[in-house]
Design brief:
heterodimer; A: 316 residues; mainly alpha; 13 helices; B: alpha/beta; MetI-like fold; Rossmann fold; 2 domains; four-stranded antiparallel beta sheet
Chain lengths: 316, 624
C-alpha cells in the first residue's frame, strides 16, 4: 500500500469478490425457491402456454450461470432490470430514493460520532461513576429498538409538543428547512444506538491511548493538558475510532431500513421492505447490489481516512 | 457461568430467560384462542389498563397481555434458530481455523470476512422475497450471517489454548484432532463462546422483532412483539399506550442478554488493570510536609525532603517510599542508584508530581527554589514541568507521540514554554535537534517517531526536554533501552548539554559505569529508602553501606577480569515484605539483632556522607 491511490485500487480490486459473491448468492437463492418469477407475475390462474412464453421471455429457461451472466452484463451496461410490481426501472427507483437513505445515514453517523466520541472522551478522563454510566448507557443503546424509540419520539415531539413532523420527507431541493425538520426525529432514533456504541468503544480507545507512555512524558515536559487530550490522545485514539466508525456506519445502514418505515421516509429501506413483501425479485436484486456497493464505499472511506491519520500506513 | 450465577445480576438474567422460556412453551397452550384471534371485544377497543385487562386492549379489543404472552413463542423460536445456526457454523469453523491454522485458517478467514461485509438485513430480505413470511428461512440466514463473529472469537481463543502444554501432550499421545478439540479445547473456550452467543441472541432478537415489525415474518393475526409495536405505531396519534408494553418487553429482553454477556465476561476474564490517572490528585494541605524538613539545604535548587509515598495494591495503600531525602544544586549531576524495584523511578516521578493512579505523597516535600511544589496549584505546578524540571524517559521509542512529526512535538514545547510564533518555534526545534548532535536536523524534524532509530529517538526526546530550557533535567534510565555504543554516546551528550547549559541533572540508573562517568554525587536507594549519600569518588573508594558495597562489587564494570561476580544474596523485597528496622537486614552479611530493632535513620558520617546503617564502623579499617 504505497499511496492513497494504491490503497483505493487495492480495495476496489478486493471488493470485486464481495460484489460477485453477494449478487451470485442472490441468484442461487432465487433458483432454490419454490415457484418462480413468471408464476409470481402471472398469478395462479395463468395458462401453461402463457407461463412458458413468459419464462422464455424472461430467460428463465437458461442455465443459472447464463442467467447470472446476462444480469451481470446488463448491470455493466447500466441496466439493473425492471420492477415486477410496476415496471419501473430498478436503477431509477433506487437512485431516486438513495438521497433519503444517505441523508439519514450520514446524519446519524455525524451525530453518533460527535456526541459518542465526546461522551467517550469525557468518560475516559473522568472515570468513576461517569465511566460506569457509559457502560450502562451502551447496554441500553444496544437494547432499545430504533423503531420503538422512533415511536416514542413521535409521541413526544410530534403529537404532544407539535414541534416536528411525525412522518414524511421533504426533499432538500424543495425546502432545506423542512428537509432538516423532517430528518431530526429519524436521525435521533437511528443515532441513539450509535451514540451509545461509539461512547463505549471510543472510551476504551481513549483509555488505551491515555495509558501509553507518550502521555506521561508529554505531561512531565509541560505540554498543556488541553493539547495532550485534544491533539495527542485524540489523534492516536482516532485511528481505532475510525475502524469502529466504519462498523457503526454499516450498522446504521441496516438500521435505516426499519427507521424509514417508522417515519414513512421514501428511502431505500422502505423500497426494500415493500419489494420484499411484494416478492419483487428484480428490485431486491438491484437493492442488494446497491447496498453491497455502499458497504464497499464505507470500507474504502475507512481505509483512506485511516491511512491519512496514520503516518505508518502513509509512509510505509 | 457458575460464577456468573452467583452474582445477583447474573442470577436475575438467567431467571428472566427461564421465565420467558416457560411462557413461550405454555402461553400458546393455555391461551389457544389468542393466536388466531382476529378481533376481541369490540366494545372495549383501545382500553387503558384495568383489572380485567392488565395491559389494556388494542384497536380491535384484544387483550394486550395475552398477545404479549402468546407472541413470546414466535420471538424466542426465531432467536433460538438464529443462535443455533450461528453456533453450529461458527464454533466448528473457528475451532478448525484456530487449531489447524495455515491454509484452512486463511480460507475460513476469507469466508468470514466476506460474510462480515454482507449487508445483513438486505440478504435476509432477499430470502424473505423468495420465501414469503418464512421466519425459519430468515432466521437461518441471519444465523449464517452472524456466524463470522463467533468464528473470530472461537478462533482466537483456540489459538491461545492450542499453545498450552497439555495439548502437545495429547497430540504426542496420538489422540485424534476431533477428540482433542471436543474434549480438551472446547471446554476451555466455553466462556468467550457464551459471551459471544449472548451477544448474538441480542442481535437476533433485534432483527426478529424488526422483521415482525415490518410484517415480513409473522402473518396476521398471529401476535408477535414486533407486530404489536407496528399495530401501536398505526394509532400512535390517538393511543400512545399500545407501543409501550411490547417495546418495553423487547428492550428488557435484549438488555438481559447484553447484561448476561457482560456479567459472564467480567467473571471469567482476568482482573482489569486501570490506566494511570491523567491528572493525579494533588495534596492540598502542606503544613505537615514543611515541618518535617530534616535537612537544611536551603540553598539547593531542588530538594526532596523526607518523602513518603503510597501506592494502592488491591485497594490498600502500601508504602513504596519511606524517608527519601536528597538535594540537587545548580549545575550538579546526581545519580540515583539501586536495583530495580527500589523506588528510584517512583522518587523521580514524585518530583514531577506524576505518580501512577492512586499514588499519594503521605509525608515530606519536594522543594524547588525554596517553593514547596505540593503547595502550588495544579496549574502552577504544571507550568513548572518542562520549564523548570524536564524529563527524559527510558523508552525513547514510545515516549514520542506516534502520529506527529518530531519537529512539531519539539516546537510545541518551545511555543508552550517560550511563547514564540510557529515559524520561530519550528526554527528553534531544528536548532535543538542540531544541538543534540543529529546531523541534518531539518530532515529529522520532518520525520515521524517510527522513522527514527532508538538512538535518534532518544536524542529527539532530549531535544524535546530542552525545549523549555529547564534548570533540572531528570533522566530516568536514559540508556537502558539502547545498545552499548549508543549508551556511551547518549551519556556523553547528556554530560555535554549539562555542562554547556549549566543545567542540573538527576540521573536514575543502575549502572555504576554511568555513575562513574558522569555523576558528581550519588544517592543509593534500597527498598524505598535512601541508604547512602556521598560524593562519587568517595562512594567508589569506601562505600559505607553494606548494600552499596555489594552493589559496586557485583557490577561488571568494576572488575572485568573477574570470572565470577560476587553478588548479593536474595532479592529486593516487595514493599509489603519490607523487614522491620533496616530494610536490608535480611540480605546483609553483617546484620545483628539491633539492625531489626527499630527504624534505622540516615546517619551523618563525615562531610557529604551519610548512610542508613548502624554498623558502618566495620568498614572503616577495610576499604573496598
Amino acid at each position: 500500500m504505497g499511496n492513497p491511490i494504491g490503497i483505493i485500487v487495492t480495495r476496489l480490486l478486493g471488493a470485486i469478490p464481495l460484489l460477485l459473491a453477494v449478487t451470485a448468492l442472490t441468484f442461487v437463492l432465487i433458483a432454490l425457491a419454490p415457484g418462480d418469477v413468471a408464476q409470481a407475475i402471472l398469478g395462479p390462474d395463468a395458462t401453461p402456454a402463457a407461463y412458458d412464453e413468459l419464462r422464455e421471455q424472461l430467460g428463465l429457461n437458461l442455465p443459472l450461470h447464463e442467467q447470472y451472466w446476462g444480469w451481470l452484463t446488463g448491470v455493466l451496461h447500466g441496466d439493473v432490470g425492471t420492477s415486477l410490481y410496476n415496471g419501473e426501472s430498478v436503477s431509477h427507483a433506487i437512485t431516486q430514493r438513495l438521497p433519503v437513505t444517505l441523508s439519514l445515514m450520514v446524519g446519524a453517523l455525524i451525530v453518533s460520532l460527535v456526541v459518542g466520541v465526546a461522551l467517550g472522551m469525557a468518560s475516559a478522563v473522568r472515570r468513576g461513576v461517569f465511566g460506569r454510566a457509559i457502560d450502562m448507557f451502551a447496554l441500553i443503546g444496544f437494547a432499545v429498538p430504533s423503531f420503538w424509540l422512533g415511536a416514542q419520539l413521535i409521541v413526544l415531539f410530534a403529537v404532544q409538543l407539535g414541534w416536528l413532523p411525525a412522518t414524511g420527507y421533504v426533499p432538500l431541493g424543495l425546502d432545506s428547512g423542512e428537509w432538516a425538520k423532517s430528518l431530526v426525529l429519524p436521525v435521533a432514533a437511528l443515532a441513539f444506538g450509535g451514540i451509545a456504541a461509539l461512547a463505549k468503544q471510543s472510551r476504551d480507545a481513549f483509555l488505551d491511548a491515555l495509558a501509553q507512555p507518550f502521555v506521561s512524558v508529554a505531561l512531565a515536559n509541560g505540554v498543556s493538558i488541553g493539547s495532550i487530550l485534544f491533539r495527542h490522545v485524540l489523534k492516536v485514539a482516532s485511528l481505532r475510532i475510525t475502524t469502529i466508525l466504519g462498523l457503526q456506519a454499516l450498522t446504521l445502514l441496516g438500521g435505516t431500513v426499519v427507521v424509514e418505515n417508522v417515519f414513512s421516509l421514501p428511502g431505500l429501506g422502505t423500497l426494500a421492505s415493500n419489494a420484499t413483501s411484494r416478492g419483487d425479485v428484480p428490485m431486491i436484486q438491484g437493492i442488494v447490489l446497491y447496498y453491497a456497493f455502499m458497504v464497499v464505499a464505507v470500507n474504502l472511506l475507512v481505509d483512506i481516512v485511516y491511512a491519512w491519520l496514520n503516518p505508518r500506513v502513509r509512509a510505509a | 457461568m457458575i460464577a456468573a450465577l452467583r452474582r445477583p445480576a447474573g442470577a436475575l438474567c438467567l431467571t428472566y430467560i427461564l421465565v420467558l422460556t416457560v411462557i413461550a412453551v405454555l402461553a400458546p397452550i393455555l391461551l389457544p384462542d389468542v393466536a388466531m384471534q382476529q378481533a376481541g371485544d369490540l366494545r372495549i377497543t383501545n382500553a387503558p389498563p384495568s383489572s380485567s385487562h392488565p395491559l389494556g386492549t388494542d384497536t380491535l379489543g384484544r387483550d394486550v397481555l395475552d398477545k404479549l404472552l402468546v407472541g413470546t413463542r414466535v420471538t424466542l423460536v426465531g432467536l433460538v434458530i438464529a443462535v443455533s445456526c450461528a453456533l453450529a457454523i461458527g464454533v466448528p469453523l473457528g475451532l478448525l481455523a484456530g487449531y489447524t491454522r495455515g491454509g484452512v485458517d486463511r480460507v475460513v478467514g476469507w469466508i468470514a470476512d466476506l460474510a462480515f461485509a454482507m449487508p445483513t438485513i438486505i440478504i435476509v430480505f432477499v430470502v424473505l422475497t423468495i420465501f414469503p413470511h418464512n421466519m425459519v428461512a430468515a432466521m437461518i440466514t441471519l444465523g449464517l450471517l452472524l456466524s463470522p463473529t463467533l468464528i473470530r472469537v472461537v478462533r482466537s481463543a483456540t489459538l491461545v489454548v492450542r499453545e498450552e502444554l497439555y495439548i502437545d501432550a495429547a497430540k504426542a499421545a496420538g489422540l485424534s484432532a476431533p477428540y482433542i478439540l471436543s474434549r480438551h479445547v472446547l471446554p476451555r473456550i466455553l466462556g468467550p463462546i457464551i459471551v459471544q452467543a449472548s451477544l448474538v441472541c441480542g442481535v437476533a432478537l433485534i432483527v426478529q422483532t424488526a422483521l415482525a415489525f415490518l410484517e415480513l415474518v409473522v402473518p396476521n393475526p398471529q401476535p408477535s412483539w414486533g407486530g404489536m409495536i407496528a399495530d401501536g405505531l398505526r394509532v400512535l396519534q390517538t393511543n400512545a399506550w399500545l407501543v409501550i408494553p411490547p417495546g418495553l418487553t423487547v428492550t428488557v429482553t435484549i438488555l438481559v442478554f447484553g447484561l448476561l454477556g457482560d456479567v459472564i465476561r467480567d467473571t471469567s476474564s482476568a482482573a482489569w488493570s486501570p490506566a494511570p490517572q491523567l491528572m493525579p490528585k494533588q495534596r492540598g494541605d502542606l503544613g505537615s510536609s514543611a515541618r518535617s524538613t530534616e535537612e537544611t539545604e536551603g540553598s539547593a535548587l531542588l530538594s526532596v525532603r523526607s518523602l513518603a509515598v503510597t501506592l494502592p495494591r488491591e485497594g490498600v495503600p502500601v508504602r513504596v517510599l519511606h524517608d527519601v531525602s536528597f538535594s540537587l544544586d545548580e549545575g550538579e549531576v546526581v545519580a540515583l542508584v539501586g536495583e530495580s524495584g527500589c523506588g528510584k523511578t517512583m522518587t523521580a516521578r514524585s518530583i514531577v508530581g506524576l505518580l501512577p493512579s492512586g499514588g499519594e505523597v503521605t509525608h515530606g516535600a519536594v522543594v524547588y527554589r525554596g517553593r514547596d511544589l505540593a503547595a502550588l496549584s495544579r496549574k502552577q505546578r504544571h507550568a513548572l514541568r518542562g520549564k523548570a524540571i524536564a524529563w527524559v524517559s527510558q523508552e525513547p521509542m514510545v515516549s514520542l507521540t506516534p502520529v506527529f512529526r518530531v519537529g512539531w512535538q519539539i516546537a510545541e514545547g518551545v511555543r508552550r514554554h517560550q511563547g514564540t510564533s510557529r515559524t520561530e518555534a519550528w526554527r528553534r526545534a531544528v536548532d535543538l535537534l542540531g544541538e543534540v548532535g543529529l546531523s541534518d536536523p531539518e530532515a529529522v524534524a520532518r520525520r515521524y517517531p517510527h522513522e527514527l532509530s532508538g538512538g535518534m529517538a532518544q536524542r529527539v526526546s532530549i531535544a524535546r526536554a530542552l525545549a523549555g530550557d529547564p534548570d533540572v533535567l531528570i533522566a530516568d534510565e536514559p540508556t537502558t533501552a539502547l545498545d552499548v555504543t549508543l549508551q556511551a554516546e547518549i551519556l556523553a551528550l547528556l554530560r555535554r548539554l549539562q555542562e554547556q547549559r549549566g543545567m542540573a541533572l538527576l540521573l536514575v540508573t543502575h549502572d555504576w559505569g554511568v555513575v562513574a562517568d558522569i555523576a558528581d554525587r550519588v544517592v543509593v536507594m534500597y527498598a524505598g529508602e535512601v541508604v547512602e549519600r556521598a560524593d562519587v569518588d568517595d562512594i567508589f573508594e569506601s562505600p559505607c553501606h553494606p548494600y552499596t558495597r555489594g552493589l559496586i562489587a557485583s557490577d561488571p564494570h568494576h572488575d572485568p577480569d573477574a570470572e565470577r561476580l560476587p553478588f548479593i544474596r536474595g532479592v529486593v523485597p516487595r514493599p509489603e515484605d519490607w523487614p522491620a528496622g533496616c530494610h536490608f537486614s535480611d540480605r546483609c552479611d553483617f546484620s545483628i539483632a539491633a539492625c531489626t530493632d527499630r527504624t534505622v535513620p540516615l546517619l551523618h558520617l563525615t562531610d557529604h556522607r551519610e548512610a542508613r546503617c548502624i554498623r558502618t564502623d566495620i568498614f572503616e579499617e577495610a576499604p573496598a
